[in-house]
Amino acid sequence: MRNTYLWFIQLVTGALIAVLAGIHTVWMHLDAILSFFGVDAKDATKWHSMIERSREVMWAGIYIALLAVVLYHALNGLRNIILELTPSAKTERIVTWSIVAFGIIVFIWSVYVPITLLSTQEA
Amino acid sequence: MDKEKNEQITFKVQRYNPENDSKPHFHEFVVPASRGTTVLDGLIYIKENLDSTLAFRTSCRMAICGSCGMLINNYPHLACHTQIEEFNSSKLTIKPLPNLPIIKDLVVDLTTFFETHKSIKPYILRHDGKEMENPSAEFAQPPQALEAFLQFTYCIKCGICISACPTSASDKLFSGPQALAQCYRYCADTRDEGEPERFPVVDTDHGVWHCHLAGACSEACPKGLDPALAIQLLKRRMVSRAVGLGKKEPPASTVPPNTETKPKVPFPDFTVKGSK
In this complex, do B203 and A4 lie within 8 Å of one another by their Cβ atoms? Predict the structure, then answer.
């Protein structure tokens, strides 16, 4: 049932992307709507505002979760496309492990910034 | 098109003999046609009167056997089920079904197609082997349970869905809509317990999850089946089983044969007195 779980996670990550990217989009680009509801986004696109936000555990969690679900969703989709265009058992293993390795490297590299900001929030 | 009057229709037929030809080419034949003439009638006319070397499959001539699937004016049809006048054109282009290897002219190799069909075990599988070997009674199945998969039992295995499928065109290892729809047909059968044997066959990188839901199979199916729906229902069933959602009904039990006999209709009295 390996492929069934991969597909199920693809569906779940799709739904999570809609929620997490929705939060990101509203906060970053729809400040007029937020102000209508009395929420102040504090110049969300400005550098200092982004740094300040990333030092909050909730926002850092949202960004790391968004990164994880987008990476899974995109790389699993890419893997499916490559396997469909190069149907062979030999390429299957190479493609799968290459994509897993690429995903892990990109994830570690990308979470470095929010983790560093979180750990230096006292400074 | 007039029923009485014959029109001259040009059949542009793809020819390919792997023993002599390096690549496929076209031959044109002029065929007389009137209202009601099918494409298969035209091909039979060519074979009987113009070129006996033309190769194509045919058998029942009434859309039951699934032999005469071919690409007519760049869309897959059963030749016996397609009338020439439907195209409203004096020229028809006829090619073998795509996504399948050509044996000769319009005859394609369906070996892999049938092997894939066989791989999903297209028959009732149960754990009570004794009952399967020596049935004592029939399995109970209400009409509602039959309707859940009835349309998928009408598959004639013509290969038209495979030839219409864009995924089959790009992925030669893809199970294809026919086998996947039949997998659902047997898994959805309340008499069946074969999911543990069938799911691993279609739960692969080239199985059920590679369907893009283009729906071309359902549009092309000459019997009006909806294989794309079957594939989506199969996906739902597999995810439900994997994550433990949904209720799994026990397989249908056997029904003892009805031993009660209906009361016999009384023998009518003789109308002629004295006769026996």
Answer: yes
pLDDT tens column, B126-177: 888 888 888 888 888 889 999 999 999 999 999 999 999 999 999 989 999 9
- B1 within domain boundaries: no
Instruction: Please report how many Cα atoms fall inside a 13 Å half-sphere around the Cα of residue B36, on the Cβ side.
Output: 4
CA gap B152, B183 in Å, rounded = 10
Nearest chain A residue (CA) to B238:
A4
Q: Is the pTM of this model over 0.90?
A: no
Domain stop point among B82, B108, B134: B108
Give the number of domains in chain B. 2
The span from the CA of B253 to the CA of B141, in Å, is 9
ipTM above 0.90, yes or no: no
Out of B170, B171, B242, name the one closest to residue A4 (CB): B242
Residues B37, B3: contact at Cβ < 8 Å? Answer: no
Instruction: Considering only the beta carbons, identify the residue of B171, B172, B239 that sits closest to A7.
Output: B239
Pick among B201, B205, B238 to test the A interface (most A CBs inside 10 A): B205
Please state, in angstroms and rounded to a whole number, the distance separating the CA atoms of residues B274 and B276: 7
Assign domain A2-119 one CATH number from 3.40.1160.10, 1.20.1560.10, 1.20.1300.10, 1.25.40.10.
1.20.1300.10
Q: Which domain does B33 fall in, by range?
A: 7-108
B204 → chain A, closest CA residue? A3
